[in-house]
Automatic annotation (TrEMBL):
The keyword DNA-binding does not apply. This is Aromatic amino acid beta-eliminating lyase/threonine aldolase domain-containing protein. Belongs to the threonine aldolase family. Its cofactor is pyridoxal 5'-phosphate. It comes from the Bacteria.
Amino acid sequence: MEDQLAENDLVTDLRTAMRGATRRLSGAPVTPLREQLADLVAQSEPWLDGYPDFYGDGLVATLERRVAELLGKPDAAYFPTGTMAQQVALRCWAAETGNDVVATHPLSHLELHERHAYRDLTGLRGRWPTLEPRLPTAADLRTVAEPFGTLSLELPLRDAGFVLPDWDTLAEVTAAARERGARIHFDGARLWESAAHFDRTLPQLAGLADSVYVSFYKSLGGVSGAAVAGPESFVAQLKEWRHRYGGQIYQQWPAVLTALVGLDRELPRLPEYVAQAKTVAAAFAEAAADFPGVHVYPELPHTHQFRLWVPFSARTMRAAVIGQIEDTGLGLLDRWAPGQAPDSAFSEVTAGAAALEWEPAEITAALRDLLTRARSGGSKD
């Protein structure tokens, strides 16, 4: 118990230290609420003369139309959370197909981060075409003996390292699912930045699926919220179930404004972030050459996010980050989680606007310094 309390204190200390960093590489910006509100007002000028939404009209409807247009779908429904959006979408497809089986992945968000809501709240059943740390292939689907009504694909598969298949593999697996009479659902919490990997437009990518879930805070900088796009009749069902699940909220304009701002400001920059992630990963790899057991995955990131693996404990890395900030003002990586092997850890690296301000040599030098501190137990040599 004491060890856990000490660990929690260290996590809190790391968050506090990152707020004081003079320069950050990865992670969401840490700014006071007053500054965030002032920025939101400045960026929301086109909508400020309008009126608040009431139970899904106004700005909510505006955002829904915008998302449908961006993804090339007939309609879209806004949800306060992605977990709600996912389970409502899957249960609606199950009702339409008459099949309660969902083909998904053991590392998917459905299984690891939503408390199995699709199963425990909707009564659906999951089947795993593959256990490999990648998206399933058409051949994998053909090994699933039981008929399934929906194939849910998380793009990218975050807990495998933000990995994506190539375009032909994705097209083949969706075609194989349709051959079996299944609907295709994209868990696209990070879909916005995935189009660059495929060298396709968002409508081309979304066109492979019957429904697409997207998030407004994971890559676009919104405070919360999600949407599911698809056929008009399907979206009408989503909105019925949204109300039943408690998602028909009286007013949601603060979150919706941040989503609209994100679509205007961040969405056009995501290809630039994806390109910078490759630069950051290469700079990290150069530093890692001096530290056995340190590596980036994927070596060439598929999106603007990837993982850095180290042969040190998460506790050691947090202490090293805090020490580096105190000595240099540089806040390199803000989150560390334990790896599967003893005394190993990983960080999820996000190349956003802050990362664009770093030169490769600066990144390499900063990571070398951080790893040197970790090798010394979290302190500077």
